[in-house]
Amino acid sequence: MKTVVPQTLRKLGRAAALSAGVAAFMFGACPAQADTTLYVGAYGGSFEQMLKKDVIPGFEKANPGTKVVIVPGDSTTTLAKLQAQKGKAGMDVVFLDDGPMYQAIQMGFCGKLADAPVYHDLYDIAKFKSGNAVAAGLIATGIAYNTRLFQAKGWPAPTSWKELSDPKYKGKLVMPSIKNTYGLHALIVESKLNGGSDANVEPGFREMEKIAPNVLSFDPSPGKIAELFQSDEVAIAVWGNGRVQALRQQGIPVEFVYPKEGAVALAMGMCVVDKSANDALAQKFVQMILTPQTQALLAESQGVAPSNKKTQLSMAVAARVPSPAQIDKLVRVDWDVVNAKRAEWTQRWNRQIER
To answer: What GO MF terms are annotated (predicted)?
Structure first.
């Protein structure tokens, strides 16, 4: 940052541009219901704060009488809330990682997305084949490492998934639980690197048994991981590039690595909850998230690669998100296969790995 004033002006300019863009997008749409509360199940931490500060005010202004309330939680928590509210009034829109989103669709929790011009501007990878959900953006699961600690130890930056079992990381690794998408990705990629597949994770479990002694924490909460990195209690973690971006914005000395064997693709899915009492408004909220203005904001603040092909990013922001070339190299997950086995794998993980 060169001076305080230019950065402040840039932030004000971005906020004004976003509000204007949202208002323009919503102008002429069907009138919002008066005194309506729209409940949005979304990731907590920096993502929740970004929505509250930079997205929701513009949406509420463009839809008078509307109040948007965030129901924070990770994907597992939000999916459980959907199960608990089934048939009752509750969340209207939800953000879920792609794996849990496929589960939500299979369970009938997501309604059909109404057709809108913005959907024709999306990359194919952002579209769920059912038409019941869409990716708000794309993330890569890879390796995060503590640059300050690595420099103090004289360690080179990590380059491979295979390094997670290195004894020098004993008690210095964060491996999110398999209940979290990042932890599940780690199990799947370790399986594929050792002769397995999405359906055959036996090699992955064997590798995880070697990695487990290095694990200090299986807690995937952003706040906990930020605390551990800041205090230099951890050197390395399995984490997403977007989450690493959020840590960096807090001044935490951390970098993201795309392992040479490939990072894993993670789509940040969103859907309108089936039979939402505020369906029209919920549809507009999803469409607004996909506009180039909001997509640029997601990329800048969360490190999420845009789903909308028309999104314009500065060179600095583009360097922090997965590029089209990197996205092409990401390891893909067959969620139809994985979700059918996930409950069984979770029980085994709890007995064998996280004990």
So the answer is: thiamine binding; thiamine pyrophosphate binding
